[in-house]
Amino acid sequence: MSREPAGRDGPGPPPAAISARGLTRRFGALLAVDRLDLEVPRGAIFGLLGANGAGKSTVIKMLTTLLPPSGGEATVAGFDVRHQSREVRRRVGYVPQLVSADSALTGRENLILSARLYGIGRAAGAVRVAEALRFMSLLDVADVLVRKYSGGMIRRLEIAQALLHGPEVVFLDEPTVGLDPLAREAVWERLLDMRARGSTTVLLSTHDMEEARELCETVALLHRGRLAVQGAPAELVAGIGPEATLADVFVKYTGGAVEQGGGYREVARTRRTAHRLG
Amino acid sequence: MRSRGRDAPPTGWADALAAFSGQALAVADAELHKLFRDPTELFTRSVQPILWLLVFGQVFSRTRAIPTGGLDYLDFMAPGVLAQSILFTSIFFGIAIIWERDLGILQKTLVSPAYRGALVLGKGLSAGARALAQSSLVVVVALALGVRLRAEPLRWAGVLVAVLVGAAAFSTFSLVVACLVKTRERFMGIGQVLTMPLFFASNAIYPIELMPAWLRVVARLNPLTYLVDGLRALMIQGAGSAFGLGVDLAVQVGVLVALVALAARLYPTVAV
Questions:
Q1: Is B149 strand, coil or helix?
Q2: How many domains does chain B have?
Q3: What pTM was estimated for this model as a whole?
Q4: Alpha carbon A161 to chain centroid distance?
Q5: Helical ranges in chain B per DSSP H
Q6: Which of B98, B107, B111 to substitute to test the interface with A, most A CBs within 10 Å?
Q7: CA distance, residue A128 to nearest chain B CA (Å)
Q8: Rounded to an integer, what distance in angstroms lies between the CA atom of residue A169 and that of residue A89?
Q9: Residue A278 and residue A180: Cα distance in Å, rounded?
Q10: Does residue B174 lie in a domain region?
Q11: Which among A60, A108, A214, B162 has most CB atoms closer than 10 A?
């Protein structure tokens, strides 16, 4: 497998953090993602909006190499997700919508496992784990089993795990679903802090308009697997009218699909996550 | 938190092997942390093999109905019961991967650059270590019942390897099944269907020579037969290996390597 970034011929500006052309995914007869074009610049917090079932998680799974695309192409950190998947995985962090921290381990043990899977040496790993625990305000509970953590603490731990190896791009699939407002704001603070530090690109999926407005420079709205509209939240709102909100943008481009979207599996998954974090 | 100097990716075979081993041990280590924190499972899972020895073994040793090549029946069956306890525990191990998929742990692990084979082998090794702890309880009961165990330390080192590799092989087989069936309900049904044929079509509680010809063929294809054969020769005074200890070990290792390779290919499909 090549370690040379795809689509980068000679000197010039570095490739976009994420680039997708005609990205498509079918599940049998269902077209979950339909010819998606996406360009996410480096260092941005980019929001993927959409109702349940719009295709957000499927896009993230393709970009993180969990799911092979049925068509089109995509690069992450300059590497092709289909043909250079290991190179992509070295350079990304991922927080799934489901609760992915192991509740039978302590926070520190979860982080140590991540460090070892990413090939971080023992000494460097100990330093990074300590730093991650401090950054996420989890030092006091580092040696407590995760099953005793609050929902907000679990999410912060998962974000710490995703950042431990210094990824170029981090994918957060509905990172605040199921969290109470205080815990949600604590997660936001960490993400904004990360943006201030500069070099990590974040792609987060959400159907929380306030979250998108607070965090994202650019949002892409997905509807039934297709890109409905893309732009800065303020521009999209301004395009609707003076009194409009991001929710109005959502309704305009999805036809109010917020009440329709998502099959049984998706709804069950969201509720399960909310239950475990709550 | 972001590091400036990225850890160098493995470049040669030696680096790749070191990375592979490190990742497999990391997975096994995390699993063992969980086991030592709550070892209840070890004791509950030991009940069944101990009952086999206490009840079935003691009754059948009185009937003298099964030709065992000069061994006392309890001596003959003790390694078979040990192998059975390894099989019965390992064959349901794969359900853990379905749990991890449903919890989201698996997806996160699969997005790491760790080798899929290392993730699978790490799970297998943790099942092996689990089986070692469980086996030691069975051995203590066998000793208490007067089973004539060997005393040579080298032979017991062999038992340790056989249990570790055997449990890793059967638990990886279980992972393969889990990767194929994908749901808990289907997995439980299939697990039940698999254990009995594997156990009864082996030399665990009677010699292969007693079987009809077709079943003898099945038994010779069954990896459990080679595990029992090796354990019997290593553990029991006066017992020998029918196939040779080298063959017994080679079969176990070969099966493990083949299953790890297969499971590594199937592993990512569970997450979808």
A1: strand
A2: 1
A3: 0.85
A4: 13
A5: 13-37, 40-51, 58-63, 73-90, 95-103, 105-110, 116-144, 153-181, 184-200, 213-221, 223-235, 245-270
A6: B111
A7: 7
A8: 10
A9: 8
A10: yes
A11: B162
Query: Phi and psi for B212 in degrees, rounded to 5?
Result: -65, 160
Please name the residue of chain B whose CA is at the shortest distance from the CA of residue A131: B1
pLDDT in tens, A23-34: 999 998 899 999
Instruction: Take residue A115 and report the two structure tokens written for it.
Output: 């460090």
Phi, psi of B183 (to 5 degrees): -125, 150
What DSSP designation does B10 have?
Answer: P
Q: Can you say whether residue B271 is alpha, beta or left, with left for phi > 0 and alpha for psi between -120 and 50 degrees?
A: alpha
SS3 at position B216: helix
Is the model's pLDDT at B242 over the cut of 70?
Answer: yes
Residue B94, C-beta contacts closer than 8 angstroms, at least 6 positions apart: B171, B174, B175, B176, B177, B178, B179, B187, B191
- Picking from A67, A124, A166, the nearest residue to B2 by CB comes out as A166
Cβ within 8 Å, pair B30-A65: no
Instruction: Report yes or no: B236 and B148 within 8 Å, Cβ to Cβ.
Output: yes
Give me the residues paired with residue A218 across strands: A46
CB contact under 8 A, B1 and A135: yes
Decide if A205 contacts A50 (C-beta within 8 A): yes
Secondary structure class of B2 (helix, strand, coil): coil
Q: How far is A236 from chain B (nearest CA, A)?
A: 32
ipTM of the complex: 0.84
Residues B35, A59: Cα–Cα separation, whole Å = 36
In this structure, is residue B134 part of a structural domain? yes
CB < 8 Å to A28, chain B: none
Contact B108 A95 (CB under 8 A): yes
Q: Nearest-CA neighbor of B249 among B234, B230, B236, B233? A: B230
Domain boundaries, chain A: 18-277
Judge whether B5 lies within some domain: no
Integer angstrom CA distances of residue B238 from B134, B154, B233: 25, 16, 8
Which residues make beta-bridge pairs with A38? A20
Contact A197/B2, CB-based, under 8 Å? yes
Residues B81-133 have pLDDT tens digits of 999 999 988 998 889 899 888 888 999 999 999 999 999 999 999 999 989 98
- What order do you get walking across the sheet with A226-231 strand by strand? A92-95, A169-173, A201-206, A45-49, A218-223, A226-231
What is the dotted CATH code of the domain comprising A18-277? 3.40.50.300
